[in-house]
Design goal:
heterodimer; A: about 110 residues; six-stranded mixed beta sheet; 11 strands; about 55% strand; B: about 120 residues; mainly beta; 1 helix; about 50% strand; globular
Chain lengths: ~110, ~120
């Protein structure tokens, strides 16, 4: 079966750095997405990785290791507005997105 | 551009009632999707469409039907609602192909459905 694992909840302090991990086992791989979802709102796109390595976009970076079935999202200089759920999703061989359950990130002052 | 819109935003149904959720997109996307999101679970694909006039089953299609008569609209129907269908429903759209630009899914604001 297809499976995506990420921690249920994480807590971090404003101004700090946090890393959210995602491991996956899917039938085929055509890329990995990270989405942000604030409570009561729709998911919004953060990043996409299809090749191994680090993609940096402002305060957010995403890393992928295809051989290990592993990705992480790194958030730097945390702000209160970063409190949200972060969803990991893998595009499988049929170009369908398989979603993790999401990681709820709580930022404390 | 409005992006992806969904109507209604909220709905309460009694068991056995029927309803239709409407999704509309103005980005000329080929692909459209219906998901449900339940607490502690990832987004689960109900049905999807790869173009006007075509639909396909996703991971959890039972109890739902869909239609894509126009490219910009994707309708989700519940013929006989059950309490297990209480959920938040999201519609999304995308353009097929390789690379983030074409596979990124754009989401509507969601419909909160409660079945009593």
């Amino acid at each position: 079966g297809q499976n995506i694992d990420q921690p249920t909840e994480m807590t971090a302090t404003e101004g700090a750095i946090v890393q959210i991990n995602c491991t996956y086992q899917t039938s085929g791989f055509n890329g990995l997405f990270w989405y942000q979802q604030h409570a009561g709102e729709a998911p919004t796109f953060l990043s996409y990785n299809v090749l191994d390595g680090l993609e940096e976009k402002g305060r957010f970076s995403s890393f992928l290791s295809r051989s290990k079935g592993y990705s992480y999202l790194l958030l730097k200089e945390l702000q209160m507005k970063d409190s949200a759920s972060y969803l990991c999703a893998v595009l499988d061989s049929n170009y369908q997105l398989i979603w993790g359950a999401g990681t709820k990130l709580i930022i404390k002052p | 551009n409005a992006g992806v819109t969904q109507t209604p935003k909220f709905r309460v149904l009694k068991t056995g009632q029927s309803m239709t959720l409407l999704c509309a997109q103005d980005m000329n996307h080929e692909y459209m999707y219906w998901y449900r999101q339940d607490p502690g679970m990832g987004l689960r694909l109900i049905h999807y469409s790869v173009g006007e006039g075509t639909t396909a089953k996703g991971e959890v299609p039972d109890g739902y039907n869909v239609s894509r008569l126009k490219k910009q609209n994707f309708l989700l129907g519940l013929e006989s609602a059950a309490p297990s269908q209480t959920s938040v429903y999201f519609c999304a759209s995308s353009i097929p192909g390789e690379g983030a630009t074409y596979n990124e899914q754009f989401f509507g604001p969601g419909t909160r459905l409660t079945v009593l």
